[in-house]
Amino acid sequence: MTQFGTQSHPLRVAIIGSGPSAFYAADHLLKQTSLVIEVDMFDRLPTPYGLVRGGVAPDHQKIKTVTKVFSKVAAHPHFRFFGYVEFGKDITHAEFTEYYHQILYATGAQTDRQMNIPGEQLSGSHPATAFVAWYNGHPDYRDYQFDLSQERIAVVGVGNVAIDVARILSLSTEELAQTDIADHALEALSRSQVKEVYLLGRRGPAQAAFTTPEVKELDDLEESDVVVLPDEAHLDELSRAELERNQDKSSMKKVEILQSYAQRPPGSKNKRLIIRFLVSPVEILGDAEGRVATLRLVKNELYATDAGSIASRATEQFEDLHVGMVFRSVGYRGVPLPDVPFNERWGVILNQKGRVLDPETQQPLPGEYTAGWIKRGPSGVIGTNKPDAVETVNCMLEDVAAGQTLSPRHPDGASLERFVRERQPNYVSFEDWLKLDAVELTRGQQQGRPRVKFTSIDDMLAALGRTETVEQ
Ligand code: NAP
User: Fold this and answer.
1) Ligand 1 nearest-atom number relative to CA 162
2) How many degrees, rounded to 5, is the angle at CA 467 between CA 459 and CA 423?
3) CA of 210 relative to ligand 1 center, distance in Å
4) Ligand 1 and 379: CB distance under 6 A
5) How confident is the model at residue 469 (pLDDT cuts 50, 70, 90)?
6) Of 55, 264, 288, 420, whose CA is between 20 and 30 Å from 80?
């Protein structure tokens, strides 16, 4: 067997996806000094960075500076980006195995969880993930329509995504105009009639999934008052005991902030962002045209589970909230990749520490790995993906040392590039992306904004001097 991992026979790794976990994995691979490794990163979109571009809120520019770290990784001579190349469509799993010793899946969680309540499919009931992708200019979502003529909107869930959605709906046009929100969303939101946004938590303030800085920053909204009901902000004995037992300072601070909102006299701004606790949606009721009109809520109470956590259960008290739109923000969910083992229950690729497992034998499949949300589920902040990716890469390195890899017929970069060009002549390299990036930044500068995003793939290709039909 040829020894690989050398200058003449580098270890060839494909990474599918180009979000944070993909880049942290590439970084750790390319930092290895005892092996020569070449990394090719693929994304179905022409643009890299996954949820940093398509998920992080447009008014959270500081978080996006992490792309500086990623672009340094991309500058490594052994790194290549193949954007606008879809795994399973342009190139199949079997074809990837012909070119690489190892394949790492880092495709994130591309869809949402459902609430599974009647009326969820009514017009005006949307996944928060679609709204996020729309305002961030994801090409697949640019034509979505959200009826912003509604005055009252409910967002179900109290995680950081829910709070992002509620905040974007509450920001003034002037505040939004300083961000890199997609132009179509800026335009639509500038005509928004939304006056009240309800964030709905099924448990209490101590169990809210959003983080402290996110709830604190709501106080700075120019046009919107934050409202919390005093009896819902009250810390029950179970939660108090748990916070004290765990010395959970961060949740204590969060509760303190929520209670300070609850103690305020009514504000005078023209919009309200209302955070509710201990309520669960049980049904969405429609009007005569089948549009969302009412969200029926049940009041919950908290109890300690046998496993020691604090859960909610329904009482017999109901409440109708009249809203014209409902966003469910109850978590993302992974999507299976063709020919890659998937755990339907958890919505992740079947794996152990990042090694993809054969569903029959539960043993690792040689040369196949996963990292990020598609490995562990949709939790944690961007930085959480670093140790997660390192864990996977360490398994990859151990397996190389043990001779457990794929056996590609064409383990060289030039053959792969020829093959990609055949399948997707319009693939976008990292140099191409840097050109698109420069255009977006220049357009942003002209408008006093961080960037003005391309939101259509055709426009991106046109800016690179290509069209869909032109073969190179
Ligand atoms: P999340 O943090 O898991 O929050 C999900 C929320 O949905 C929780 O409040 C959960 O309540 C609730 N929920 C789940 N099922 C429900 C149901 N059937 N009915 C009512 N409520 C339900 O998920 P996320 O907000 O999608 O965020 C995903 C990850 O991205 C998180 O780790 C988040 O911190 C991160 N993120 C970070 C930022 C940031 O750093 N600024 C921004 C966006 C996202 P329970 O707790 O009761 O289950």
Assistant:
1) 25
2) 115
3) 7
4) yes
5) low
6) 55
| C-alpha 331 – ligand 1 centre gap (Å) | 5
Q: Are strands 332-333 and 224-228 parallel, antiparallel or unpaired?
A: unpaired
Ligand 1 mean position, distance from CA 277 (Å): 14
**DSSP strands (E only) in 252-399:** 271-276, 279-286, 292-304, 310-322, 325-328, 332-333, 342-343, 348-349, 351-352, 355-357, 364-370
pLDDT tens digits along 183-199:
999 999 999 999 999 99
Contacts 24+ apart (CB under 8 A), 216-220: 216/257, 217/167, 218/163, 218/167, 218/170, 218/261, 218/273, 219/261
Q: Which residues pair with 272 in a beta bridge?
A: 196, 225
Q: 385 CB less than 6 Å from ligand 1?
A: no
Q: Is 276 in the pocket of ligand 1 (CB under 6 A)?
A: no
Atom 23, ligand 1: which residue's CA is nearest? 331
Whose C-alpha lies nearest to ligand 1, atom 33?
160
Kindly state if the Cβ of 369 falls inside 6 Å of ligand 1. no
pLDDT by residue (tens digit) across 245-278? 999 999 999 999 999 999 999 999 999 999 999 9
H helical segments located in 220-326: 230-233, 237-246, 249-262
Kindly give the interhelix angle for 249-262 and 237-246, rounded to the nearest 10 degrees: 140
Query: Do you know the residue count of the chain?
Result: 472
User: How many angstroms does the Cα of residue 159 sit away from the middle of ligand 1?
Assistant: 3
Angle between helices 128-135 and 160-170 (to 10 degrees): 50
Domains assigned to the chain: 11-110+334-463 (3.40.50.720), 113-331 (3.50.50.60)
Non-local CB neighbours of 94 within 8 Å, separated by 6+ positions:
339
Q: What percent of the chain has pLDDT over 90?
A: 97
Q: What are the tens digits of pLDDT across the range 312-330? A: 999 999 999 999 999 999 9
Task: Look up tokens 């004290």; give the residue.
Answer: 244
Amino acid at 327: F
SS3 content of the chain, % helix, strand, coil (to 5): 35, 25, 40
Test site for ligand 1: of 161, 297, 305, 310, most ligand atoms within 8 A of the Cβ: 161
Atom of ligand 1 nearest to the CA of 115: 18
Q: Which amino acid does the sequence have at 277? A: F
Query: Residue of the nearest CA to atom 36 in ligand 1?
Result: 160
Asked whether residue 340 carries a pLDDT value surpassing 50, the answer given is yes
Does any ligand 1 atom lie closer than 6 A to the CB of residue 280? yes
pTM: 0.96
